[in-house]
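Our consortium's second objective concerns turning raw sequence data into structural hypotheses that experimental partners can test. To show how far this objective has progressed, the report includes one record in full. It was chosen at random from the queue rather than selected for favorable results. The single chain below, 155 residues long, was entered without modification.
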Amino acid sequence: MSNTIESVEDDAGNVITYHRHANGGGLIGRGAKADDTSFISSTTYVEAGAWVGSGCRIGAGSWIDRRARIGNDVFIGDAVYVGQGATVGNSVHIGSHSRIGAGAQIDDGVHLHGDSTVTAHGVIAAGTRPTAGSSVTALPRHKLPRHKEQKRRAA
């Protein structure tokens, strides 16, 4: 984390203080953590309480909201919003201009093309590869369909 401090006024007139990330110069909010091996573009905001793992690349104009957690080796394109309290697993790819809803969970290895939308408080399971521009209505974890093998054993 660099020693450069920036202050930004929000819509309500409150002044919020950010530190510039050492690798890329992204704006890191109070209490947020971003690994030094991650690249965070200078026009990206990582809000208070958020966490960014190692080896990530977060593109220009993206916004990681409060308490969001970004795993290791994650690619986030330009102009992506990751909602408050969302969790993005390891080795995830999120294309540019995508929106991840508040409290959403994206499992390890998921690949989302650009212009994708993931609804709030749902889960995108590992191995999911929606088409470009998809709007994914994620199911809560407890409502995910069971695998065929599990259904047979239960019968």
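The partners drew two points from this record. The chain has one domain: 5-154. The radius of gyration is 17 Å. Both points have been shared with the crystallography group to help prioritize constructs.
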